[in-house]
Amino acid sequence: MKIDLVTDIKSDVQVEFIQKSELKEHKRYKLLNRAGFSAEQDSICFLHEKAILACGIESDESDNFRSACSAAIKALKSSNHKSVSFNVNKLNIQAIIEGIILGGYEFNEYKSKHKKSSLKHIYLTCSKIEKLQRLFEESIIIAEATCFTRDIVNTTPEDLNPPSFADLAKKLAHENKLQCTILDEKGLQKEKMDSMLNVGRASRHESQLIHLTYKPKNPKKVISLVGKGLTYDSGGLSLKPAASMVTMKMDKAGGCAVLGMIKAASELKLDVEIHAFVGAVENMIGGVAYKPDDVLTTRSGKTVEVRNTDAEGRLVLCDVLDYAQDKVDADYIFDFATLTGACMVALGQYTTGIMGHSHKLKHGFYEAANNSGELVGSLPFNKHLKTLLKSGIADISNIASKPYGGAITAGLFLDNFIKEENKDKWLHFDIAGSAYTETPWDCNVYGGTGAGVRFMSNFLQNIE
Length: 464
Ligand code: BES
Ligand code: ZN
Ligand code: ZN
Fold this sequence. Notes:
6-stranded mixed sheet, binds zinc ion, 8-stranded mixed sheet, alpha/beta
């Protein structure tokens, strides 16, 4: 499918966005009414003979265009039309492009028969294309980086394991001219990243630390992005129940997101230096597995009592965060992780949880999310929850002594590994709910959603 920005075109079908208040005045009102179309948000109605696809929208807020276009593109892809046009303006072009690309996304890698769609050309029309050209190109870069993230998340744990994750990062580095450093287990041992190494002990795949760098000439800011890259989370010896284990290939979504973010930043040619770190590990069971009761020495020197091997993400991230802080003197450090089921309990499945000390920085992300149609919510730290991580034998326990506020206690665990001078530069994003879906919503279809890529791209575009 090809998307072009044009002034005028004759296409097989034209999309018309219609609000309830406009319906009666519509030229084809009688026909639309007969078809039962009442301009409900996300409802669509084909008038094939008139070459119109009517799409209901609640108001002209950009979020409504995004979800309406997701519904439209699905219907268009299963029709026999070859070309379609959407009228766009400065305010809705990004949402329309996201609806088309993200709502029309399909992952068919594991289907033996490929569905063929007749739809070949998508035209976005507006009178002055020069004014929208840049926004058009940027929106496509961001949407495609989101699809890139989705593709990796959706790849099975057999195909996407820590070494193949590292190979994929090398390929991205080569294509986008990024610097790339990979540490295998030998390298991790040299760096004393024992906490991360222990999580991967029972896997037949060697754990890997991926570090990609995008370095423009005179960067305004330096940013470290850290991603949890659990290519599979069986829970380890604290084994997950069968039903909860399904979908755990998505436990690498944080790592996939930071690769999508650096891809977008480099293609947008942003003048921000980006470092993407991924801790790629598989959490498995077996005779050599790490166990509840083990005490691990992290890279920072702090010791951790393992009371649950399913709280493994924080054991990987604490070492990667420590490494990232030593290697790069960043202005901001953001980590992305499918860290806790508790985040979904707190905020629902659609919302990314934000934790950290700087209210200003958190506000920056409320705005970025709002601009890009992602949902975020803040989960506040407090000193009482912090005490729940005390351990009788080590410096800290890997799980809290009480189950309530589990997303926050996980965030507070990570906080123990953020150096004093970096406290206000760091935010933790829990994408456990938002990174993956088995039921479509908004522009998200079955599987990985690419959560984080759009709002981080927006944040980076607007950085001062
Ligand atoms: N990867 C999971 C968190 C998760 C759960 C992500 C559901 C996406 C969907 C994480 O490693 C985990 O298992 N966390 C435990 C922590 C608990 C043992 C303190 C959890 O959330 O139950
Ligand atoms: Zn786990
Ligand atoms: Zn996990």
